[in-house]
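agent> step 3/5: call structure_predict on target 'Cysteine--tRNA ligase' (Pontixanthobacter rizhaonensis).
agent> reason: downstream docking stage needs a structural representation; sequence fetched in step 2, passing through unchanged.
tool.input:
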Amino acid sequence: MSNTPLQLFNSLTRSIETFAPVHPGEARVYSCGPTVYNYQHIGNMRAYVFADTLGRTLQWKGLKLTHVINITDVGHLTSDADEGEDKMEKMAARQGKSAWDIAKFYQEDFEQDLARLNVQPKAHPRATEYVDEMIAWGKKVADKHCYECESGLYFDITTVEDYGRLARAVTEDGESRIDSVAGKRNNADFAIWRRTPAGETRQMEWDSPWGKGAPGWHLECSVMGEKLLGFPFDIHTGGIDHREIHHPNEIAQNQAFCGCGGLSEAANSGARMWMHNNFLVERSGKMSKSSGEFLRLQLLLDKGYHPLAYRMMCLQAHYRSELEFSWDGLGAALTRLKRMVMQAERLADAVAGDPSHQKFVPALEKFDAAMSDDLNTAIALTALEEALAVKKVDAGIKRAVIEQMDSVLGLNLFDLARTDLRIRPKDAQITSEEIEEAIARRKAARVEKDFATSDAIRDELSAKGVELMDGDPLGWEWKL
Ligand SMILES: Nc1ncnc2c1ncn2[C@@H]1O[C@H](COP(=O)(O)OP(=O)(O)OP(=O)(O)O)[C@@H](O)[C@H]1O
Ligand SMILES: [Zn+2]
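tool.output (status=ok):
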């Protein structure tokens, strides 16, 4: 546990602030979750590695954490600015399945990816479970803040003070629009309720005072945040794209809901702090699902990379910096993780003791200072390596220090074995058992000083794409 004050960058004020819990001894965090109309790409997963590292840090500071990552299973249109088709219904039509089945399938896939990245269990409320509460919220704010037009109930952004303060850049026509909704008063007004067009039926629709239809995407997060965490809660997170439209709209709704209009009190915006992770990018630009082919965690596995190598890759960058994905970078992150796992393996039999020992003070202080400085995981990783390198100390003390650091970074160092990190690529022509069996035969031949057989086995493996790595300092033994 650490008592150093935690400094975090609050997007709302664009400055570093000291975290002070709303409820003493507790931290309540809401992270915008995925729209489950498709697989998540690894860029999306960067957002959850960041949110999880934040949650772990708050726990390490001694706070009882309540952390929500919602599931958007209705209401997110193909444009964040509330226009176009519902992403769920569009995919359902494309796959010839029900929107409910689509949501279930991709939610499960998402949760599997979270587990693979060692993201701690969180609450995952689904938007469709809160529709009554969304309607109640709409009723409460409708008179003062909304107007109806043909396509539904819209929020008039001029009815709250300082709309778009979070984005700092919202202008009347500053956002990309794909088509404009007839009857909207201001370009940036957004739907609270989307009425099903006359003569159509949606798979996901509910009765409301504004006709049959579905809730707006921004409303969902406001409602689930308020219901599950209460206003104000401590921290709201999301990817940096949400700073421009989704979160300013949530804040406007929250101001209306609190009946306090203004933004002078951080409380009025629903959360005290708003934090945003930067993008994972490819050379060609932001990784995105709309671009057709995209990188999934499963593809990394299929190519032989352990998912935690991707977590390592994320931690090597500051969450507010862009991170460019490359296979070489991922390979380097895997090697780094492997070195750490090997060092942790040496402590496997030790019972964790009291971490206070002179020799670990510099590394622990460095780690604490780095994490407390707006989650500087890149430096924290070097402190972890310094602690791992400390020699001639009691293994139990060392284990306790490493466990503490790993509880924050989530690399799972004590549960991973070296061999877990060597994943056979999906297209490999040979099974791991066959490789191990050939290696055992070769070892036996070498004991007999039968170098001809030993070389023959090496060639036989090489022909199948397996390179033996005699004397490899990482003990890798072979690679494909
Ligand atoms: N390339 C990226 N890097 C980091 N975070 C991202 C990236 N793309 C999206 N995110 C974040 O991932 C979370 C889930 O995003 P969401 O479900 O809205 O999908 P999306 O990837 O933005 O969809 P699409 O690519 O179809 O526009 C959000 O917090 C979003 O800000
Ligand atoms: Zn959201």
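agent> step 4/5: record observation. The pocket of adenosine-5'-triphosphate (ligand 1) is lined by residues 32, 34-35, 43-44, 46-47, 238-239, 241-242, 277, 279-280, 286-290 (CB under 6 Å).
agent> proceeding.
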